[in-house]
Specification:
With 346 residues, the chain is an alpha/beta fold. It is built from 11 helices and 10 strands. It has a 7-stranded parallel beta sheet, sandwiched between helices. Strands 7-8-10 form a 3-stranded mixed beta sheet. Bound molecules: NADP nicotinamide-adenine-dinucleotide phosphate. InterPro entries: Epimerase_deHydtase (IPR001509), NAD(P)-bd_dom_sf (IPR036291), NAD(P)_dehydrat-like (IPR050425).
Amino acid sequence: MAAVVCVTGAGGFIGSWIVKILLARGYAVRGTSRREAADPKNAHLWALDGAAERLTMLQVDLLDRASLRAAFRGCDGVIHTASPMHDNPEEIIEPIIAGTRNVVEAAADAGVRRLVLSSTIGTMYMDPRRDPDAPLGDSSWSDLEYCKSTENWYCYAKTVAEQGAWEAARARGLDLAVVIPVVVLGELLQPSMNTSTLHILKYLTGQTKEYVNESHAYVHVRDAAEAHVRVLEAPGAGGRRYVCAERTLHRGELCRILAGLFPEYPIPTRCKDQVNPLKKGYKFTNQPLKDLGVKFTPVHGYLYEAVKSLQDKGFLPKTSGAKVPERRSCLPQTTSQPPPEIVSKL
Ligand SMILES: NC(=O)c1ccc[n+]([C@@H]2O[C@H](COP(=O)([O-])OP(=O)(O)OC[C@H]3O[C@@H](n4cnc5c(N)ncnc54)[C@H](OP(=O)(O)O)[C@@H]3O)[C@@H](O)[C@H]2O)c1
């Protein structure tokens, strides 16, 4: 019988890719959503290879521990991706902090072998006293007072949630591992827009005339999903935090790469800040994920796939001038209302 893995937020940007990879590897997948099983927002999941035979969707509320317990019962592993991604504290504190705590407790109650949590780089780098030359690692934590005083409520909630998850997992003897994605880009499997994809859409539509003086790290959505699955599978992978990032780019470099691939779009060429030196991004190491076998796709590949996907899904008008990145391995292996943008803290 196939091992069963539960994926919370299964129909989301990263969750959909995790489901796709798990099904391709022969797992039986239980996906959770706040929505009813037939909701069109999750219809794309049923088109995945293996879904008809091995996917089940369950309506689950992160604040209802009994519904989580029922979803996790009989599962070998759980991957918790469900989370709001915006900065309204009234809407996000409970599902992120209490929701994550409930997931840990329910996973422990259900006796799952390992819980993998999707956290965020925003739990690591939001600290004004951080040494900018030291790579972010297991012991890097965002400063909660700084998150609050700067109203970075998403980073605040995710940091408290992750710290609470470690504490609860230790208390319950649960094997926990945490994946820490940066800005995730690439092909959208889901029909709707997601927060991190909005990050580049605004540079393609002409909505943003100048780029900001910021640097961030980026990663391909398929690699981020693969990282979650490898961390779930590898016998000794529990008990640590895995930074999931391919490279750091200044926003100007990001725009230049986009313009090189898609010269037809009105991509900004000028920085808003003409006074200060270019801001450097945080340093990180992705070696622990490489050691688990994750191969990080170069940036041209995931930017290309993200834009093609925006065209295919009707978020961007199609153009004829795209330059296919030379590395064939970068190309896809398979073929409402937008949320507020919080990419500076992802
Ligand atoms: N994308 C990135 O660049 C990025 C970077 C760093 C970390 N992350 C983390 O990675 C995870 C997945 O991100 P994603 O980009 O795949 O996000 P996403 O596309 O927005 O998907 C997240 C899913 O979570 C569920 N959800 C949203 N609000 C919720 C709420 N209030 N209560 C319960 N469930 C809720 C939704 O599923 P239903 O509507 O079906 O319930 C949604 O599809 C999140 O934990 C996020 O914090 C993402």
